[in-house]
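Objective 1b. Sequence-to-structure analysis of Polyketide cyclase.
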Amino acid sequence: MAEVTAEARIEAPTGKVWERLTDFGSYGEWNATHTNFPDGGPETLAAGSTFTENMKLMGFPAEVLWTIEELEDGRVLAIRGKGPMGVIVGTRYSLAEDGGATKVRIDGEFTGAAVSLMAGKLKDSATAALTESLRKLSGLVA
């Protein structure tokens, strides 16, 4: 398993950050690993909804079938997906108000046999991508 985390304080209200975070039509503007949603983003933002995303990590393209596992409107979006080579990917976005700004934390995990072969590089690449994503997200909402 490889686990990654990135955090940032974004100078924007939580509602504005959440709105951008869940606007799947503009995902590519801030999410550093996203390439496209071949069938569009999730039709309904609700636990149990599924959607497919094409991504790129460590220079490799991957298609992930995501399921929304947890949704707390304005605060938490957790998704888990199945990627290539039996890799399971989990991503959890959590937002907290911080005096007119928003603390955003992204937790990610990768599990599966293929992960053990490249865990170190995967952690470094995913951490860099999450940090870049938060930087871009901040620029869009601040």
